Amino acid sequence: MTAAPRVGIRRLPADAFDDAVPALGELLADTVTGGASLGFRTPFTPGDGAAWWHSQADAVRAGAFVVWTAYNRAPDSASDGAAFHGRVLGTVCLAFSSWANGAHRADVVKLMVHRDARGQGLGRALLATAEAHAAEAGITLLMLDTETESPAERMYEAAGWTRYGVVPAYAADPDGVLRDCTFFYKPVTLYKP
Question: What is d(CA 5, CA 20) in angstroms, rounded to the nearest whole number?
Answer without folding.
Answer: 19
